[in-house]
Amino acid sequence: MIPVQYRDPETEEILDRRYEESVPTIGTRVQIDFEHYQVLFRWQCVPTSCIVYVRRVPREVGARAAA
Questions:
Q1: How many angstroms separate the first and last alpha carbons of the chain?
Q2: What span, in angstroms and rounded, lies between the C-alpha atoms of 54 and 42?
Q3: 25 near 41, Cβ under 8 Å?
Q4: Distance separating alpha carbons of residues 42 and 4, to the nearest angstrom
Q5: What is d(CA 19, CA 63) in angstroms, rounded to the nearest whole number?
Q6: What is the pLDDT of residues 23-61, one digit of tens each?
Q7: What is the dihedral angle through the alpha carbons of 50, 44, 36, 30, rounded to the nearest 10 degrees?
Q8: Stretch 11-17: mean pLDDT, rounded?
Q9: What pTM does this model have?
Q10: What does the domain layout of the chain look like in residue ranges?
Q11: C-alpha distances in Å from residue 41, one per residue of 7, 36, 67
């Protein structure tokens, strides 16, 4: 398990912290609270931790993808 911090790329705000089996790849979608986010890039990924920058996916795009 790797500790991952999910951050907003504009404000550096930490949106979520959790342990993941593996580091999310660029372009994948993750769910934080009740919102969907897309992984933009990763920073300082080492075997013990990783910082991942994400962008919120608009609801209509997320709803279409789920359908």
A1: 31
A2: 9
A3: no
A4: 10
A5: 26
A6: 899 999 999 999 999 999 998 788 788 999 999 998 775
A7: -40
A8: 95
A9: 0.81
A10: 2-66
A11: 10, 16, 26
The predicted pLDDT at position 41 comes to: 93
Q: Which of 59, 67, 2, 56 minimizes the C-alpha distance to 30? A: 56
36 alpha-carbon distance from chain centroid: 9
Question: Three-class SS string for the chain?
Answer: CEEEEEECCCCCCEEEEEEECCCCCCCCEEEECCEEEEEEEEEEEECCEEEEEEEECCHHHHHHHHC
Question: HSE of 35 in the Cβ direction (CA atoms, 13 Å)?
Answer: 11
Check residue 62 and give its pLDDT. 52
